[in-house]
Structure formats: structure tokens, C-alpha cells
Specification:
The chain is α+β, with helices and mostly antiparallel strands and about 350 residues long. It is built from twelve helices and nine strands. The structure holds zinc ion (ZN).
Length: about 350
């Protein structure tokens, strides 16, 4: 078992741009029955460390599982010579700067045990095997889920992620992945919200343990924003965070924000990722007063430490501030829309 899962499946969103070219049309030759057939693919990775066909693999990883149209063999093919030239041409064009990111990239895909991804079916078989060998390892299930998602087996992906969260409730990534799917294509708002709530609750401990890179905080907040926009139910975020020291006493801030009133979700994304945040919880209980310490903090109108505690309940808005507030609100609406668009690109 590798301790350092250095390079796992490359993230197509990071290295490719699927918007600039039509899908790749590639010719394949079935290794089982020699039938030649063609298909369309979202993307292809070419392994630069691999000479063609020295062990039955041509060094190409495609975006989906391929079934021979004649004999039904699954993922048992080679990329035809003409299509290999096409892939190399795209790579060269990119290398000399004639084209920007496209659908083809050099990339070595390693599974988390260090084995090289060749065909999706074989990679998935290995991921399933790893789960069998490590039945209590949440990461094994999460990685299987990620692989299944990558190659379009969403049912199995969700099943694997569920198992990962069941084994380790603090697996923020798996929770975020399920929530993202169920709140989107999976179209199950209550169940998706359940996982979102759980992942958000697990975030501070994961951040403290440095297990989570900063990306999961923003990802969860994007999902939260989508949820807030789809429901009229009262929804507030309750947060606990360190407020510095007063003498030898550790001050702790506890405050909440009404999410339907919150304007700046980007600041919230930064906030939930802070190392001094100790607890996060979603609740239907709205704050009794406005603005709360947390609301002031998120609107950029707050001093530090003890002054935050003292400021609670202090009058905040006068007429001028209120007008500025409305202006800001309009601008924020646009930003929210932008943020929502950004969230449609998966960040995995
Ligand atoms: Zn065949």
C-alpha cells in the first residue's frame, strides 16, 4: 500500500479544455476479433513514458469504457495507427503553442497503490480489488468512487462514497462528492443535504488535522449556495471559532449567519477553511438579532478578538449604510450567479 498517493488520476478539468474542440473521433481495433470501429471521446491522455504496444498497451487512456461493436469485448483494443498520429499531432500542436488546452494531454495516471492506469475497466478492477483487500479503509472506497465517477459508473461511485463516509465520517472529500452528485444530477435534495451537512461539520477537524487541502471548504460552500437558492426553509450556519486569549483565558466566538441573507459566499468559503474555526453546523434556527458577530465578520466589518465579543448587538446600520447595503446586495447577486456557474465545473 503506497503511503504517498502522489499522482492519482489526472483531473481532466485541470489540464484539458473541452470547450474549444469537438469530441475526439478515434479509430480503434478490437484486440479480440480485429474488428475496426470508431468512437467519440471526451478526452485522451497519452503516457509519454510508454513506447507503443510493448506490453499490449498503446499508452493511451480514454475517457470512457469501450465495448467492441462486433464481439462485445470490453476495453480490449488498440488505438488504430491513424488515430495515434492524430493524438500525437494534437500534442505537438499544444507543445509548440499552436493550440491551447484541448482534449489531448500527456499524462501518466497512477492509482493510489502506484499501479499505472491503462484501460478504465482494468483500473476499476484494481480499485475494486483494493477495496476487497482493505474493507475498513475509507480512502480505498473513496478512490474507487472517484474512479467510477471518472468513467461514468455513477451508481457504483455513490455506493463507494457512501461506504467511505460510513467508515470515516470525517472523509470530507467523499461527503462532498456524494452531496455534489445528489444535489446535481442525482436530484435528491434531502439526501444530498444530509451529506453536505455532515461534510461541513467534519471540515474543521479535517482542516486542523491538515488532512484537507483548502479546496473542500470552497467546494462545500458552493454546494451550500446552490442549496440555499433552491429552498425557502430557514437555514443558518452556526460557527465556533477561536477568539484569541484574554489573560490566560481562551476566548471562543459562537455566532451564526442566516444563509438566505448572506451576500458574500466567497468570504464564507475563506472563513470555513480557516484553521481557527473549531466547529460548523447547519441549523434551521435563525439568529435572533442582526447583525451577528459572524455576519459582521463576513461582511468585512469587524475588528479582532475581544472587540468582536463586545460588539454583539451594537447598532450597525444607519441610513447611509443601509443604502450602501442595497447597492452591495445587487452587486452580490451578480457575483452569486457567477459563483454558481463556476460551481458547475467540477472541482475534483
Ligand atoms: Zn471485437
Amino acid at each position: 500500500m503506497a503511503n504517498e498517493p502522489a499522482r492519482t488520476l489526472p483531473n481532466p478539468e485541470d489540464v484539458l479544455d473541452l470547450s474549444t474542440e469537438p469530441p475526439l473521433k478515434l479509430d480503434l481495433v478490437c484486440a479480440h476479433c480485429e474488428e475496426k470501429f470508431s468512437g467519440e471521446f471526451e478526452w485522451a491522455f497519452v503516457n509519454p513514458e510508454r513506447g507503443y504496444e510493448n506490453d499490449g498497451w498503446d499508452g493511451v487512456v480514454l475517457s470512457r469504457i469501450v465495448t467492441c461493436q462486433k464481439c462485445g469485448a470490453v476495453d480490449d483494443y488498440r488505438v488504430a495507427a491513424g488515430s495515434r498520429f492524430l493524438l500525437m499531432g494534437r500534442l505537438l500542436g499544444r507543445a509548440v503553442g499552436n493550440s491551447s488546452k484541448g482534449r489531448v494531454a500527456f499524462g501518466v495516471s497512477l492509482l493510489w497503490d502506484g499501479s499505472v492506469v491503462q484501460r478504465p475497466t482494468r483500473a476499476l478492477a484494481r480499485l475494486r480489488q483494493l477495496v476487497g483487500e482493505n474493507p475498513n479503509n475509507a480512502e480505498a472506497f473513496r478512490r474507487l468512487g472517484n474512479g467510477c465517477e471518472r468513467w461514468g459508473l455513477m451508481g457504483e461511485a455513490v455506493q463507494a462514497w457512501r461506504k467511505a463516509v460510513a467508515l470515516n465520517a470525517a472523509d470530507v472529500e467523499a461527503g462532498c462528492s456524494i452531496a455534489s452528485y445528489l444535489l446535481g444530477k442525482g436530484n435528491d435534495l434531502p439526501e444530498g443535504f444530509k451529506y453536505l451537512r455532515q461534510a461541513l461539520g467534519a471540515l474543521p477537524a479535517a482542516t486542523a488535522a491538515k488532512k484537507e487541502l483548502r479546496q473542500w471548504g470552497p467546494a462545500l460552500v458552493r454546494l451550500l449556495l446552490e442549496t440555499v437558492e433552491r429552498t425557502d426553509e430557514p437555514l443558518a450556519l452556526m460557527a465556533t471559532w477561536s477568539g484569541g486569549r484574554l489573560g490566560d483565558q481562551q476566548l471562543v466566538n459562537v455566532s451564526s449567519v442566516d444563509l438566505h441573507e448572506l451576500e458574500d459566499f466567497e468570504t464564507l468559503a475563506d472563513f470555513v477553511s480557516r484553521p481557527d474555526v473549531l466547529g460548523l453546523a447547519l441549523t434551521s434556527e435563525l439568529p435572533k438579532e442582526s447583525p451577528t458577530i459572524l455576519e459582521r465578520l463576513l461582511s468585512g466589518d469587524s475588528g479582532g478578538g475581544a472587540s468582536q465579543l463586545l460588539a454583539q448587538g451594537a447598532p450597525f446600520r444607519d441610513t447611509v449604510a443601509s443604502r450602501a447595503h442595497r447597492h452591495k446586495r445587487r452587486a452580490e447577486k451578480k457575483r452569486k450567479q457567477k459563483l454558481r456557474k463556476a460551481s458547475q465545473r467540477r472541482n475534483r
